[in-house]
């Protein structure tokens, strides 16, 4: 549906039918002025802009089916809105969570299960030899816990909205650690060797993993990160690929593309969000440690030579030491994954701190003299 909106006059989209998600596209400037109103709740779209299609657009999955959806704009704009309806499906948590400490395939919810009641994907698949696992976020809600319904709506947006054969990603990871198999293999190859639609129109050699949520400003929680790492452990072990390696790829913005890469390594996009992008070096470290423990023969190699800062032990029970080498770092902050500052102080060459918080992921932000921050993930366990 195409809309011409005049300033501050709300326009109602079809009232006769339930919808479960909306996809709005328009010029970036237009989208910034748009809000959607459902019942009495008004949602701004600006923080939900999704660059996946290379065209700014916003995709919102509702927590319940909605009838009265209004669009309001502060200025005169032209936009296109697509609406989807995916009947809710309750899988009653029958799928167990995933371990990260081995290289077996984690449990996933097959597409044939979560897709129940929706139109099947169009036939026609290509197999590909995967050398790069590409990490995405879906730029959607961080609070909607109807994960199965979120995945079903993404499927509709990709198939009915974008006109693709199937959902674009090979795997989707929910905030509680549930993993969904994505693109249907249709008997062509293993599902993890099916070429998807997620990486800047150059999908050959890649496997796409999308984390549900928006990680521009917040980081994924521990359950979601562990599930992501469990897929990476399994897939890189299966392909005998080193997480520290890079290979030439036709759509890499740099010279080479990492074996664990992110969407914005390939084209202009904010995906997978700055807060998730910052965790990639640590994810590579973690996966490499697991691959070695699984017996994959990897050459001795480190990305951390001459690292100016060391933080140890990590994980810890709360007592950690920060050691600075030839660095102009001056202060530290410990922040929660929600961005709350829990403690702060000055840094010496060697600083030992005690973090009196419950088990979980925290961030240590180190500020240098110019006022810029270095972010390190720390894990507190066994308290
Ligand atoms: Zn992406």
Task: Describe the structure concisely.
The chain has 383 residues and is α+β, with helices and mostly antiparallel strands. 16% of the residues lie in helices and 31% in strands. The model has no long low-confidence stretch (mean pLDDT 86).
Low-confidence stretches: none
Helices, by number, come to: 6
The description of the largest β-sheet is: 5 strands, antiparallel
Share of helical residues: 10-25%
CATH superfamily of the largest domain: Peptidoglycan recognition protein-like
**Strand proportion:** 25-35%
Please name the CATH topology of the largest domain: Lysozyme-like
- Number of self-contained structural domains: 3
Count of DSSP strands: 23
**Strand order across the biggest sheet?**
1-9-3-7-6
Mean pLDDT: 86
Which CATH class of the largest domain is shown? Answer: Alpha Beta
């Amino acid at each position: 549906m195409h809309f011409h909106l005049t300033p501050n006059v709300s326009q109602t989209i079809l009232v006769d039918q339930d919808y479960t998600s909306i996809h709005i596209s328009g010029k970036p400037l237009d989208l910034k002025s748009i809000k959607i109103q459902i019942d009495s709740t008004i949602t701004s779209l600006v923080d939900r802009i999704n660059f996946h299609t290379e065209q700014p657009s916003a995709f919102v999955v509702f927590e319940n089916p909605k009838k009265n959806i209004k669009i309001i704009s502060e200025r005169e704009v032209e936009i296109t809105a697509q609406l989807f309806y995916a009947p809710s499906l309750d899988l009653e948590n029958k799928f167990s969570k995933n371990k990260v400490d081995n290289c077996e395939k984690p449990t996933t919810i097959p597409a044939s299960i979560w897709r129940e009641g929706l139109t099947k994907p169009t036939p026609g698949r290509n197999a590909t030899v995967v050398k790069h696992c590409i990490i995405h976020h879906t730029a959607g809600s961080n609070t909607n816990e109807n994960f199965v319904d979120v995945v079903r709506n993404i499927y509709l947006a990709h198939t009915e909205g974008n006109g693709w054969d199937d959902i674009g990603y090979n795997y989707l990871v929910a905030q509680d650690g549930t993993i969904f198999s994505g693109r249907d293999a249709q008997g062509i190859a293993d599902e993890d060797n099916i070429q998807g639609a997620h990486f800047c129109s150059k999908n050959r050699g890649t496997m796409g993993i999308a984390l549900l949520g928006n990680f521009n400003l917040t980081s994924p929680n521990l359950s979601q990160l562990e599930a992501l790492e469990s897929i990476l452990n399994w897939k890189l072990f299966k392909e005998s690929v080193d997480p520290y390696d890079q290979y030439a790829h036709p759509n890499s913005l740099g010279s080479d593309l990492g074996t664990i890469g992110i969407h914005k390594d390939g084209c202009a996009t904010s995906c997978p969000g700055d807060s998730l992008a910052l965790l990639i070096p640590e994810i590579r470290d973690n996966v490499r440690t697991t691959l070695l423990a699984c017996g994959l023969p990897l050459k001795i190699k480190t990305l951390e030579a001459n690292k100016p800062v060391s933080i140890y032990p990590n994980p810890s029970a709360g007592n950690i030491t920060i050691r600075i080498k030839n660095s102009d770092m001056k202060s530290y902050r410990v922040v929660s994954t929600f961005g709350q500052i829990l403690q702060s102080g000055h840094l010496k060459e060697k600083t030992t701190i005690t973090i009196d918080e419950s088990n979980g992921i925290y961030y240590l932000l180190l500020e240098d003299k110019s006022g810029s921050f270095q972010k390190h993930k720390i894990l507190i366990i066994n308290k």
